[in-house]
Design brief:
9 helices, 9 strands, 286 residues
């Protein structure tokens, strides 16, 4: 059985994640009280017809959520293997989403009357869970389609037990991805934006890709990045890390960073690594 436990902030996109996982064959249980984790997992172990189980546990369970971490520890004691996925998002974006949908935040109450306070309270409650997560996905800058592709690429092979390397291209003007483990800045390289015929293309186009790597400094930097990854990926794996997030940033996230992610992805796949690619800002305006 493949067991994926999902937690995260309200409004961050857990329902979208569940829907996408159902599309690739997972059986999903949403908003389960943590005290029922072990009984449900035991029931699942005795049912051979459903191999891949997703359980969502979050602060909607109110006071019952306080025992979540202890229940996770009990799963380990009973040798029930699981992967913990945490979905997060920046407070300002969460505030906008709740105002747009006009849904009530589950933590709004007499003692926590404002939406802003409820979001902050949720962040505080979930912080210890996020620290223990095997995989963290920040949906702040992800469109639903990008999140969907991310989830499908990451979890479509349920029996994969190695480390996934997530490659993210981004624009510095939109901020560094919070989930990053390693960040490389390629803004020092020649910018295709200033070439008229390349300005409105992206690093996914061969003419931009070839332009970026026509310069010796680009070749040198990409080689040094690959040397680092080849040498140190085994050390990350030996520490039991399930996901390594490598982020490459340029100014807008359209040209140089996309080209570098494309290059690194090809090299890592050729070396037998499992990769997930996210071009976070490629659809944003220049």
């Amino acid at each position: 059985m493949s067991l994926l436990i999902i937690s995260g902030l309200s409004g961050a996109g857990k329902s979208v994640v569940c829907n996408n996982l159902e599309d690739i064959g997972y059986f999903c249980i949403d908003n389960l009280p943590p005290q029922l984790l072990i009984p449900v997992c035991r029931l699942q172990l005795d049912n051979p017809t459903t191999r891949n189980l997703v359980i969502v546990v979050d602060s909607r369970s109110q006071a019952m959520f306080d025992s979540f971490l202890s229940e996770l520890n009990e799963l380990k004691k009973q040798n029930i293997d699981y992967q913990l996925l945490f979905i997060t998002c920046e407070p300002e974006t969460l505030l906008g989403r709740f105002k747009q949908t006009r849904r009530k935040h589950p933590l709004v109450s007499r003692s926590v009357p404002s939406l802003e306070d409820a979001i902050q309270r949720d962040i505080e409650i979930c912080a210890p869970v996020m620290e223990q997560a095997d995989v963290v996905i920040d949906t702040t800058h992800l469109r639903p389609q990008q999140l969907r592709q991310n989830i499908i690429d990451m979890f479509k092979d349920a029996d994969y037990d190695g480390m996934t390397i997530k490659l993210v291209s981004f624009g510095y003007r939109n901020g560094i991805p919070n989930e990053s483990d390693l960040v490389y800045d390629v803004r020092c390289l020649p910018n295709p934006f200033y070439v008229d015929e390349l300005k409105h293309c992206s690093g996914l186009d061969d003419n931009v890709y070839d332009y970026v790597f026509s310069f010796p400094q680009s070749v040198s930097m990409s080689g040094k990045i690959m040397d680092f990854l080849y040498e140190f990926i085994p050390y990350y794996q030996s520490e039991g890390k399930n996901e390594l997030v490598v982020s490459i940033g340029c100014t807008s996230g359209h040209h140089r960073s996309v080209s570098f992610v494309r290059y690194i992805d090809e090299k890592l796949r050729a070396a037998g690594s499992r990769t997930v690619v996210v071009h976070r800002d490629i659809d944003k305006e220049y």
